[in-house]
Specification:
By secondary structure, the protein is of the alpha/beta class. The protein folds into two domains: 81 residues, Rossmann fold, CATH 3.40.50.2300; 55 residues, Winged helix-like DNA-binding domain superfamily/Winged helix DNA-binding domain (Arc Repressor Mutant, subunit A, Orthogonal Bundle). It is built from six helices and five strands; from the N terminus they run βαββββααααα. It has a five-stranded parallel sheet, covered by helices on one side. The longest helix is centred in the last third of the chain and has 15 residues. The radius of gyration is 27 Å and the shape is rod-shaped. The relative contact order is 0.09.
Length: 178
């Protein structure tokens, strides 16, 4: 059983720069789609760095932040990516790049998660690196007594019974990385 040939879509191009609009139109037409004006009831709108009409049936944007559009690609997306996104959005799917942005902030710790000071996290990372108290003190520029003070606080806040347990709990909660 053979797959039917992919149907050509009616695509409107929205770009502020006429040269960019022409380049995108040529790329989309080379993929076998028909270029139409926005008022000609397109199947999908390809918008480059400008906000597409809110009443557009389906929109794929290039280089625009998340605004609720069905498709979102980086500004330097290639012809194959654009073609695939246009077809997917016209079929009712949502398209995002594989390299979705990671949130800049982690969720606020829950009530049961301990709130560690920045210095406690540094000490936890140092012991996670396998440093002794003396080596950790040297690395952080503090006394061995201060390291011991921070370790006691870490053990209490993390409910840890040993250095290894504290590191394990810190890793599991995302407080440190090795």
């Amino acid at each position: 059983m053979s797959m039917p040939a992919a149907r050509a879509l009616r695509v409107a191009i929205a770009a502020g720069d006429p040269a960019r609009r022409g380049g995108l139109a040529a790329m989309v037409a080379a993929s076998g789609h028909e270029i139409v004006a926005r008022y000609d009831d397109p199947d999908v709108v390809l918008a480059d760095s400008i906000e597409a009409a809110a009443d557009a049936p389906a929109v794929v944007t290039l280089g625009i932040e998340e605004m609720g559009q069905a498709g979102m690609l980086p500004g330097d997306a290639g012809a194959e990516q654009i073609d695939a996104a246009l077809r997917a959005v016209a079929a009712g799917l949502i398209v995002r790049t594989a390299l979705a942005r990671q949130p800049a902030f982690r969720p606020f710790p829950s009530e049961d998660a301990p709130l560690l000071t920045p210095r406690e996290i540094e000490v936890l990372a140092a012991i996670g690196d396998g440093l002794s108290n003396k080596e950790a003190a040297r690395r952080l520029g503090i006394s061995q007594h201060t390291i011991k003070f921070h370790l006691e606080s870490l053990f209490r806040k993390l409910a840890a019974t040993s250095r290894a347990d504290a590191v394990h709990k810190g890793l599991r909660r995302g407080l440190i990385e090795l």
